[in-house]
């Protein structure tokens, strides 16, 4: 850190207070003398996540507050606010509330999550410079709108990605110029942009367009709003890296110049590039006595129908739904890409050897297939769509069979018969959640979060009317703990509006009534890999995908290289069109 004289300090203070009227170059030495002052004073940190701890074992909240000294009033954590502000899961209501209701003396929003890391000194310098450049441009525009100066476009910055092919997640958007940020690396928006956007979307001409819709990716939707309403597009910053390896030309993946250093980057909770499961750090396993989930305290309920008993059910049994082979910690050994990790955790997980997840196939028709698969008849009529009545029956079946049983079930996972699940990744995800929510004190274990309703969160809501009903998408898998199941099964008001009401949305409505939040957890996916950007597929862990093919060979071709990573144990006979169990 440089040392400056008294006059220099006064100049720094003057430039900081009146920076919008002064050449930004005057501020360069001031930044060097106070490496986080601008971040502390002028940036609102929005932790858009239900969790705080990354794969390095660090909490992003601790990094901001304790390591960097960011004031608590400038830090927002989604999970602390959902109960009071349910609309906050749409993201934009958070930003609008901050520019209209809170202290307005700031310049930027930094949206990040538990996987985001950043160089605070470099970010501090970059943001001050970018904000000052934009202010100078706007000042000149106000003086003479015909001035021939190109906008620096510093209103919205991040690691830019877009859809190579139309994606169901983004409503089959065909505009390849519509860019959105890679969320794990974090991104920033100037306060001015949100102020302008708020005015625009609340105007009479726009308000009706945003009354209500289903939000499947709020970061993409924010980009779309900024683009359509006020013509602000995401600016790619090369130093906003996908991972720290982006500085190496050999591993650089972004369509940008190779940066000399990263200002922001993401840390992955994937075991390795080819071992796609969720990872708990090995040192976390070894340094303390973790509360590891016993597979026998987990039930997976597969929702199916008679028409798919001999196709989908038999397919997933060969891939993952065989309780004696894949539904346990030993399944990691069947994946050749995970051998190093498997050897490292072997002594820790050996005590669960031979313990398997409970498996239920629940349908509108009961039968036994090949003497191996028992399918339970729920005595409910199948619907061509919606399936609410079937889900209602599943909830009550699980409650009656397991809640008071000697099995001591802790977690219930409801999936479709065309959900592609990675059981080891599911178990490790539950390990993360269980150890995140459980603390220890002198009196033993206590629970910080009594109810769990978790998976991939979608939201039905309105950014102009400030409401949202969140729900976990059924195709990716729905996780409910025993306390949440008990409260749900005991709820007399939690019934279907009609037998074919969308089941996952009905479940979200019931939990909203019970004041149980929908917890988003990365890795659960509602669609096939082709519907997600490759950065997410190759750098994030995978717990599930959704949608099968007619045969295992077709599934393999459909999922391309991901099939080999997900199920390297699958022995596919491409000459046999009819898959046998």
Describe, in plain words, how this protein is organized in 3D:
With 581 residues, the protein is of the alpha/beta class. The protein has two domains: 36-266, Spore Coat Polysaccharide Biosynthesis Protein SpsA, Chain A; 282-566, Alpha-Beta Complex (Spore Coat Polysaccharide Biosynthesis Protein SpsA, Chain A), CATH 3.90.550. Helix content is 33%, strand content 17%. The protein contains 20 helices and 25 strands. The strands form seven sheets. It has an eight-stranded mixed β-sheet. A six-stranded mixed β-sheet has the order 2-1-3-8-5-10. The longest helix is centred in the N-terminal third of the chain and has 24 residues, at 120-143. The termini are far apart. Residues 1-5, 19-29, 439-446 and 573-581 have low confidence and may be disordered.
Question: If helices are DSSP runs of H or I spanning 4 or more residues, what is the number of helices?
Answer: 20
Strand content: 15-25%
Rg over CA atoms, rounded to whole Å, is: 25 Å
Question: Unreliable runs, pLDDT <50, ≥5 residues?
Answer: 1-5, 19-29, 439-446, 573-581
- Judged by helices, strands and strand pairing, the structural class is alpha/beta
CATH top-level class of the largest domain: Alpha Beta
Number of strands: 25
Helix content range of the residues, please?
25-40%
Instruction: Write down the overall mean pLDDT.
Output: 87
Shape from CA axes?
globular
Oligomer type: single chain
Strand order across the largest sheet: 14-15-13-12-16-23-20-24
Counting structural domains, the number is 2
Main location: membrane
InterPro entries: C1GALT1/C1GALT1_chp1, Fringe-like_glycosylTrfase
Pfam families: Fringe
Keywords: Glycosyltransferase, Membrane, Nucleotide-binding, Signal-anchor, Transferase, Transmembrane, Transmembrane helix
């Amino acid at each position: 850190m440089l040392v400056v004289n008294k006059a220099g300090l006064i100049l720094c203070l003057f430039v900081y207070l009146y920076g919008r009227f002064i050449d930004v170059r005057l501020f360069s030495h001031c930044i060097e003398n106070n490496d986080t002052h601008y971040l502390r004073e002028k940036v609102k940190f929005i932790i858009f996540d239900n969790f705080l701890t990354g794969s390095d074992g660090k909490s992003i909240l601790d990094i901001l507050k304790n390591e960097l000294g960011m004031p608590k009033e400038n830090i927002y954590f989604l999970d602390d606010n959902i109960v009071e502000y349910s609309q906050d899961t749409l993201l934009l209501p958070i930003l609008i509330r901050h520019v209209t209701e809170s202290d307005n003396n700031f310049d930027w929003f930094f949206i990040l999550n538990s996987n985001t890391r950043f160089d605070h000194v470099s970010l501090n310098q970059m943001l001050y410079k970018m904000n000052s450049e934009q202010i100078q441009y706007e000042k000149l525009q106000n003086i003479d709108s015909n001035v021939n100066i190109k906008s620096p476009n510093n209103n919205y910055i991040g690691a830019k990605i877009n859809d190579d092919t139309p994606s169901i997640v983004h409503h089959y958007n065909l505009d390849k110029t519509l860019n959105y940020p890679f969320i794990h690396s974090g991104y920033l928006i100037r306060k001015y942009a949100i102020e302008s956007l708020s005015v625009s979307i609340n105007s009479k001409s726009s308000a009706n367009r945003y009354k209500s819709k289903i939000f499947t990716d709020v970061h993409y939707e924010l980009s779309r709003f900024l683009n359509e309403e006020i013509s602000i597009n995401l600016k790619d910053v090369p130093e906003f890296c996908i991972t720290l390896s982006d500085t190496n030309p050999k591993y650089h993946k972004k369509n940008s110049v190779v940066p000399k250093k990263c200002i922001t980057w993401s840390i992955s909770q994937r075991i390795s590039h080819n071992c796609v499961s969720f990872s708990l750090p090995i040192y976390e396993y070894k340094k303390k006595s973790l509360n590891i989930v016993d597979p026998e305290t987990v039930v997976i309920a597969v929702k199916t129908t008679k028409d798919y008993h001999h196709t989908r059910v038999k397919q997933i049994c060969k891939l993952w739904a065989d309780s004696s082979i894949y539904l346990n910690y030993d399944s990691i050994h069947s994946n050749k890409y995970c051998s190093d990790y498997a050897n490292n955790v072997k002594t820790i997980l050996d005590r669960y050897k031979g313990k398997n997840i409970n498996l239920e196939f629940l349908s509108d028709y009961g039968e036994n297939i090949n003497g191996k698969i028992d399918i339970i008849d729920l005595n409910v009529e199948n619907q061509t769509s919606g399936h609410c009545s079937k889900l209602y029956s599943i909830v009550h079946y699980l409650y009656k069979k397991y809640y008071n049983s000697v099995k001591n079930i802790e977690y219930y996972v409801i999936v479709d018969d065309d959900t592609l699940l990675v059981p080891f990744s599911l178990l490790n995800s539950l390990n993360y959640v269980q150890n995140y929510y459980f603390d220890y004190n002198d009196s033993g274990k206590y629970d910080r979060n009594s109810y769990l309703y978790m998976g991939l969160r979608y939201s039905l809501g309105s950014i102009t009317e400030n409401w949202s009903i969140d729900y976990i998408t059924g195709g990716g898998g729905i996780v409910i703990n025993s306390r949440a199941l008990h409260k749900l099964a005991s709820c007399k008001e939690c019934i279907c509006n009609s037998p074919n009401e969308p089941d996952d949305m009905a479940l979200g409505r019931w939990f909203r009534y019970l004041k149980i939040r929908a917890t988003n957890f990365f890795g659960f996916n509602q669609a096939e890999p082709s519907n997600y950007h490759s950065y997410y597929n190759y750098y994030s862990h995978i717990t599930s995908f959704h949608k099968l093919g007619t045969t295992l060979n077709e599934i393999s071709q459909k999922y391309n290289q991901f099939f080999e990573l997900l199920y390297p144990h699958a022995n596919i006979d491409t000459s046999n069109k009819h898959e046998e169990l």
